[in-house]
Amino acid sequence: MGECACGLSDDDDLNEDDVDESVDEGDHTGWTGEVVGDAERGATIYASSCAACHGATGLGTASGPSLADEVAEESDEGLAETIRAGEDGMPPFPNLSEQDLADLIAWLRARFGGSSEGEEEQEEDDD
Fold first, then answer.
1. Would you say 108 and 71 are in contact if contact means Cβ atoms under 8 Å apart?
2. Total structural domains within the chain
3. pLDDT in tens, the chain (127 residues)
């Protein structure tokens, strides 16, 4: 049995007691967007924190969905908020520093594309 980056083993169920109450959905994530990410370092963070559920390539497993569409459509701030607060069964990772987040997001962008503004602002520009 393995243990994922959130600290749960394969036999554990995530429940409300496991979630850090200090990070509520919609709370400011501490993301300023001013830190430049290093995609190579982000790959290491992804491998240790995300790959257990989302797969080594990020294209999903039985435990977690593919990140391809989500990353391409979401802004950097939105990705940071989702990573820090968790979402739809994904555990929160509130202890990642802004540098860790920037590095992880840089890897996700290098892998799946998208922009820091996300899809919403791009659609507005097309009008």
1. yes
2. 1
3. 333 444 443 344 444 444 333 333 334 456 777 888 999 999 999 999 999 999 999 999 999 999 998 899 999 999 999 999 999 899 999 999 999 999 999 999 999 988 777 665 444 555 5
Euclidean distance between CA atoms 2 and 87, whole angstroms: 22
Residue 43: inside a domain, yes or no?
yes
3-class SS of residue 65: coil
CA angle (86 as vertex; 80, 87 as ends), nearest 5: 110
Is residue 67 included in any domain, yes or no?
yes
Residue 28 lies in a domain: no
CATH no. for residue 96? Answer: 1.10.760.10
CA torsion, points 7, 12, 16, 19, in degrees to nearest 10? Answer: 10
